[in-house]
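Hi support team,

I submitted a single chain yesterday and got back a structure, but I'm not sure I'm reading the token output correctly. Could someone confirm the output below corresponds to the sequence I sent? I've pasted both exactly as they appear in my results page.

Thanks,
R.
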Amino acid sequence: MKKVTLVLFCLSSFLIAHTQQKAITEIGEEVILYDNGTWKYQNQEDFEETEIPTNTMQFTKGENATFLLKSSKFDVGFWINPKKWSFEKAINNSDAEYELTLKDGDLYSMILTEKIEIPIEKLRSIALENAKVSAPDIEVVKEEYRIVNGTKVLLLQMNGTIQGIEFSYYGYYFSSDKGTLQFITYTSQSLLNEYKGECEELLNGFVVID
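Hi R., thanks for writing in. Yes, this is the structure output for that exact sequence:
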């Protein structure tokens, strides 16, 4: 699985990278150009605007999440179960702050942080837009707002294909006047249901540190 792991880490970089270019057509219309040769009009919507539902459940950290991993960018942290997860400063993805690996499985995670505030709606669009650069077939298959340890976040599940690999990203998105967070778990689409509980347990360790 080592080669697949490296591929997945490389694929993950599109979530925060801004690789689109803009151009003007002969009739003065602004378009966005992608590295894969596709394009779209600047004002063209990628999806119909629909109201994102709110999950009424309260999500809290698990009792076995005993280690608090803190961001150095702004005041957020991540309670993790150190018996299940290993972590390190990001190496494979220069845009990430931390990379995590499930010790007994093929599930991975990354923590991407920035010191700027991005409205959640815009963050959703950015994540989807940048994903299409590498995976033109990317789609949001699940989205909802959640209250996690007292903080409102957006849950997104995105599925796509790159170099023949069908993968799923399942993660939380958060932003405040202190900064912006993308807390993502990812694996192959065929394994996501098997690892969904592990994804939820890890993601629900997210906290805002007072």
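A quick pointer for reading it: The longest strand covers residues 151-162. Let us know if anything else looks off.

Best,
Support desk
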